[in-house]
Amino acid sequence: MISIHRALISVSDKTGLIELAKHLSKYQVEILSTGGTANLLRQNGFEVTDVSTFTGFPEILDGRVKTLHPRIYGGLLALRDNPEHQEQMKKNNLVPIDLVVGNLYPFEATLARGATHEEIIENIDIGGPCMIRAAAKNYRYVVVLVNPGLYPELMKEMEKNYGGVSEDFSFRCAREVYRLTSHYDSAILNYFEKKDIQEKLPDRLELRLEKFRAVRYGENPHQKAVFYRQAGQLPYGLSAAEVLQGKELSFNNYLDLEAVLSGVREFDQPTAYIVKHLSPCGVASHQKLAQAYRLALECDPLSAFGGIVGFNREVDGETAVVILEGMEKHGFLECLLAPGFTPEAREKLAAKKNLRLVVVKDLSATDPIDIKRVTGGWLGQEPDTAELKEWKVVTEREPNEEEKRSLLFAWKVCKTTRSNAIVYARGTATVGIGGGLYSRVDANRLAAAKAGSRAKGAVMASDAFFPQPDNIEVAANAGITAIIQPGGSIKDQECITACNRSRIAMVFTGMRHFRH
């Protein structure tokens, strides 16, 4: 049992402080304190000894040095059952400190409000982390509280144990210290690394995750799930998303929303992007967002059932009407993601109470490293943000201007479709998509089947080269007039010959876009 006779209190977050001080006074605990904490306690009638009086050394360097003194650390780190330690305590006129109540300078809050670099640096706590870590190391004799949520439990412990605290409780409090300091240091490290980016794929990568929010369930309802985010970083992407209406998001919803994000950020024009099971089933760009959604839905309304839709513009009332009309005709949608929804759109979409409206204001925010989890480790790669490497027309016929525009559009959609990926497009709207299949020719056949008669006069994009000219035959039979693909197959010349035979223009890009 740890008896509390002397406490050192120095906090930035003063939540619950006065109630705690009242409780400590009830047990005649001597209180040591610093700066603003000491002033607040005195204003509320508590007797406080300044740390500078206790140590006999003043605060210096604008408060940068306050608690860093042997009288503090000797009182915290001495082993109470070690005779040599006790002898040294007497020899150096040291007294034990039994309780530390401390939390740290608000580094992340300072960062979040866009402070200057100088102010951010001044909000890196030095004495606080040292003090609470020392107390936590000696948890068998010293209790340390860094979370105001634990104040009531401390008070209950002291009431139950006549002013004492159990070692079990002290151990749990110590664990909170190292969780806090680890998170705190991660936030500082992330800030410094962003200020001085060197290697894109460093030899050492710190992944410190914290539970962000509960998720309804995992890939299946019997699986529990949680959304973790990188600790010590300001929210961005889906961790910064605001859900305006509808049920809590599920594990699969988040994955599909990420696919939507990766898709809509590729386009400059107003674009609607419909995803089902991580791949697009309809994409279109148009000057009017409502028309973009109509065209995207026309690509494959059957697959859009239960899908997730992303927009790269604020959803207005007209677009909301088109969305609702589509739902009445083709069935429900899970989520709509956009940088915003107008009041008129929100009012109209409120009729679908289970439809989640998800706002991500900054669609462009991405991770510097694309990380995939495997058993026992992680794989990391640079994000696939490369522009077209080349534009090499390899056939007798060159694509005309309209075909060029459509090929570039189809190429962007193909880049964000699961491999093997084939995209048919007319203008800036998809008419058929085949993705996530074992064989490229099967993906091609699927895209042709989805497009039907709309494939006549359309263009085609492939995320990787054609292993056989059979893909050209499928495209020609469907009515495709131009193709864009990486090239690089040993059967390239056979594919070129097949295109020339069918008067299909073909462009090589020199780069592929697998998306596993």
Please provide a written account of the structure.
This protein has 516 residues and is of the alpha/beta class. It folds into three domains: 2-195, Methylglyoxal synthase-like domain (Rossmann fold, 3-Layer(aba) Sandwich), CATH 3.40.50.1380; 236-359, Cytidine Deaminase, domain 2 (3-Layer(aba) Sandwich), CATH 3.40.140; 392-508, Cytidine Deaminase, domain 2 (3-Layer(aba) Sandwich). 39% of the residues lie in helices and 19% in strands. It is built from 19 helices and 23 strands. Strands 10-15-14-13-11-12 form a six-stranded mixed sheet, sandwiched between helices. Strands 18-23-22-21-19-20 form a six-stranded mixed sheet, sandwiched between helices. Strands 4-3-2-5-6 form a five-stranded parallel sheet, with helices on both faces. It is elongated. It starts with a strand and ends in an 8-residue tail after the last strand.
Q: What is the top-level CATH class of the largest domain?
A: Alpha Beta
The level of helicity is 25-40%
Return the CATH architecture of the largest domain.
3-Layer(aba) Sandwich
Global morphology: elongated
Query: Do you know the CATH topology of the largest domain?
Result: Rossmann fold
**Count of separate structural domains:** 3
Largest beta sheet: what is the strand line-up?
10-15-14-13-11-12
Q: How many H/I helices?
A: 19
Radius of gyration: 31 Å
| First-last Cα distance | 56 Å
